[in-house]
Amino acid sequence: EIPKIDMIPKVKAWLQLFRAHSGMLEGMTTAFAAAMSIGSVFSPTVVVWGIWGLLAHYAGYGMNSYVDWAKGFDKEDSDKQHHPLNKGTLSKDEAKYGVIIMMLLSLFSGLALGDFSHRTIIAISAAVLSGTAYNFLGKYTSLKFIPVSLSYMFIFVVPYVSTGGDITPVFMLLSAYIFLQYAFAIAYSGEIKDIVKDEANLMKTLGARVRDIANNMTIVKMPAGLLYAAYLSASAQIGIVTIVLLYQNSQAIAYPLLGILGVYMIFQADSIVKPGTFDRESRVESMAKKELSGLYMVYLAVIPIAGLQGYFAMVAVKQAYLLLVSKFIWGTWVTPQV
Question: What pLDDT is attached to residue 97?
Answer without folding.
Answer: 97
